[in-house]
Design brief:
The chain has 225 residues and is of the alpha/beta class. Helix 6 runs parallel beside helix 7. The protein has a 6-stranded parallel sheet, sandwiched between helices. Strands 3-2-1-4 form a 4-stranded antiparallel sheet, with helices on one face. It has a two-stranded antiparallel ribbon with strand order 11-12. It contains 8 helices and 12 strands. The model has no long low-confidence stretch (mean pLDDT 93).
Length: 225
């Protein structure tokens, strides 16, 4: 907790036979030494995790791993000079939260779009940190209806908003379509390749990807690109 920054992740392992699961850091409290992670039940290990009670422990917990979000390492005045748009999908809201919180702590107002299929999380926490929060759901049961891309279009084309950087984190398919749109709108975009990580330490090579003409590993060079 003392060392972690927005964008980094931890690996947890439930027990002796459990798999190693990389999870992006959602929040941290340096004073209390706390790190918050958010997970979705998709397999045996995450199901076991959901059964843990207060006071229970993981067999192993390692971190922070990966690289912090780009803006953390940049000149703060340069960051303040840009207009940021954050786009979160589903559980992707968790890694977006510490970035938006960091921005608020540095006096920067950012716009945040949260899209949810059936899972809307961290709404009040996000509201407290975002300059403007736009929520959209697939079924229209809450505020807006439709994909996050429709909200981006609306903000830029109808409300005349201009953005210098977009950070989009969520399911692969969501990030893909956000990138297709932001390319058209000429907004440089950062995504998280956390979903393709396996080992998390650069050993297995499963998260190899091409960035420009270079080969990178999501876990040690990213997860954000």
């Amino acid at each position: 907790a003392r060392a972690c920054q927005p964008g980094e992740f931890v690996i947890v392992k439930m027990d002796e036979v459990g798999e190693r699961i990389p999870l992006t850091i959602c929040d941290f409290d340096r004073e209390k030494g706390l790190v918050t992670i958010v997970f979705q039940i998709v397999g045996a290990s995450s199901l076991k995790m959901s059964e843990l009670q207060a006071g229970d422990a993981f067999q192993d917990f390692v971190g922070p791993l990966g690289q912090p979000s780009e803006f953390v390492k940049e000149d703060i005045e340069a960051v303040k000079g840009r207009k940021y748009l954050f786009v979160a999908g589903g559980v992707g809201t968790a890694p977006v939260y510490p970035q938006v919180k960091w921005m608020k702590q540095h006096g920067i107002d950012v716009d945040v779009i949260v899209g949810a299929k059936e899972l809307l999380i961290l709404e009040d926490m996000m509201k407290a940190q975002a300059g403007n929060l736009y929520i959209t759901t697939d079924d229209g049961s809450y505020v807006r209806k439709g994909m996050v891309t429709e909200v981006i279009k609306d903000l830029v084309e109808n409300q005349g908003k201009q953005y210098d950087v977009c950070v989009a984190i969520g399911p692969m398919i969501m990030m893909k379509f956000v990138c297709k749109l932001t390319k058209e709108l000429n907004i440089p975009t950062i995504v998280s390749m956390n979903p393709i990580m396996v080992d998390g330490t650069g050993m297995c090579g499963a998260c190899r990807l091409q960035v420009g003409d270079e080969i990178k590993f999501a876990c040690v060079d990213g997860p954000e690109f």
